[in-house]
C-alpha cells in the first residue's frame, strides 16, 4: 500500500520525468515528501507563474510534457500565465494543483477554486483525482492528452486527503505521443497540387517537431527548391543560412516576405495555424476562402478549416507528413529555385543589423557581435516587447532546439525559460533577452537560477518604459504619455544581491568585455544594457513614431 503522494511521484517517474518546477504548498505535502526519496529534481521557484513557464519551456525544448507543481487557490491562479502560454503555443504541459479535502467541496473552503471553471477555456483537460487508486490512471491520461493532436496543458487537482489515502495500484507505462499520417490519396492530391503550382511557398511552425523531422524538412525543401518561411517565434525550425530560407512571418514582417506570401499560388502550411500574428491580423488570406490553394497539415483535426478553408487538409504530425511525401516524384519547376534565391537575398538584407541609431548603445552592433561570437547551439529566450525584435530579426538561427519564446506574446517569459533551458543543457550558452518591464514580471526567478547553479546570461534592455505600449500610444495618441513610464532599479546590483554576476553597459564598446566577464564568471549573470528611449525600434525612433501619429 502506498499513499496517493507516493503514487503521484511513481507515475511521474514512469513517464520519464526528471525535473519538476514548483512552489511548495501545504496542500500537496505528501507529494513533496515522496519527492524526497525520488530521483526527480524539484526546482524550487519564486512564483507559480515562473514555475509554469519553466515547465512549458522545458517541454518546448524536449517535446515531452513539462510538469509544474503548485498549491491550491492563489498558487493555481498564479500559474495561469504559464498555462496560457502552453495553450497558445501548443506545448504539452501537466500542471498538478493542490486542492482542499474532498469532504469540504462546495463550501467555499479556504482557497477553494473550481478548476474546471477556472481553466476550462485554456486547458485540454481539467480533472480532479478523487481516490488514490486512480492516480496512475489519471496521470497516464494527463500525459497522453497533453501530447495528443494539438498539444497543450492539462490540469489535475490533487485533494489533500487523496494524497494521504493509501492504495495498491500498478505503476502506469510511459505514454508516447500518437502519430497521425496522411492517406495515400492525400499524398497523391498533394503531389497534384504541387505539380500545378507556379509559385509555391512552404510555411512551417507549430510544435510536434523533432531533430529528425527538421532534417526531413530540409531535405524535402531541397528536393523541390521550395522557399521556406517560418511562423512567429518558430525560427529554429529552419537554418537561416540556408539558401532556401525566406524569413519569419511574424510581427514587423519583411514587406518583401509579405508580398511573397500574397503572390504565392500554393501555400503549404505545415504544423501550424495561420493565426493572427503570421496572417498579419488575418489580412494575408481571405476568410474562409483564402483566395489561393492552401494545403494545411496539422496534428489537430480541429484546426483544419477552423479559419481558412484548405484545398487539402491533412491531419498529420510534421514528421509523418514529410515521411509520407518523401517518395513524390514531382519535377520542380525552374521558377521555384529563382523565387527561393530572391527570397533568401531579401531575408539577408532585412536581417543585417543597422550600424547606427540614437544613443550611445547600438543594439545592431551588439547583435552582429553576438552572431559572430556564439556557437550555433546557443539557446535564446525572450518574453514580449520591442526589444525582442533584435533577436527575431537579427539573430540567425541555425539549429533546432535553440529558441524558447512565447508565441502568445507573454511578458516575463524569457527569464524562467532561460532557467529551464540551462538546466536541460548546462553545457550550452543560454541567453535571455528581456526588456526592463518584461524582466520585472518574473525577475525574482533569477534567485532560482542562482539556487540551481544555472549560469544563464540575461541581457536587460532598459529604456525606462513599457516600450511596445509606448510605441502604440505615440502612434494613436501622440504626445499623451500615460501609464507607460518606468523607474527602474540597478539591475546589475540586483544580480549581485542574489549572488550572481552583474554588469552595466552604457556604451557599445563596453558590451563585449562585459559579456566575456559575465560568461567567464560561471555564475548566473545580468548585463544591464541602458539604451536611449529614442531607439524604440531598429528602423524608427520614438520621435518619428510620434510625428507620424500627429500627422494622421
What structural category arises from helix and sheet content?
A: alpha/beta
**Tally of helical runs:** 21
Mean pLDDT across all residues, rounded? 95
- Supply the number of structural domains: 3
How many beta-strand elements?
20
Could you name the ranges where pLDDT drops below 50 across 5 or more consecutive residues?
A: none
Fraction of residues in β-strands: 15-25%
Cross-sheet strand order for the largest sheet: 3-2-4-5-7-6
CATH superfamily of the largest domain: Thiamin diphosphate (ThDP)-binding fold, Pyr/PP domains
CATH class categorisation of the largest domain: Alpha Beta
Biggest sheet, open or closed, and with what strands and sense?
A: 6 strands, parallel
What descriptive keywords fit this protein?
552 residues; alpha/beta; Rossmann fold; six-stranded parallel β-sheet
What report would you give on this structure?
This protein is an alpha/beta fold and 552 residues long. The protein has three domains: 2-167, Thiamin diphosphate (ThDP)-binding fold, Pyr/PP domains (Rossmann fold), CATH 3.40.50.970; 184-349, Rossmann fold (3-Layer(aba) Sandwich), CATH 3.40.50; 363-551, Rossmann fold (3-Layer(aba) Sandwich), CATH 3.40.50. The chain has 21 helices and 20 strands. A six-stranded parallel β-sheet has the order 3-2-4-5-7-6, sandwiched between helices. The protein has a six-stranded parallel β-sheet with strand order 11-10-9-12-13-14, sandwiched between helices. Strand 9, helix 9 and strand 10 (228-231) form a beta-alpha-beta unit. 55% of the residues are buried. The mean pLDDT is 95.
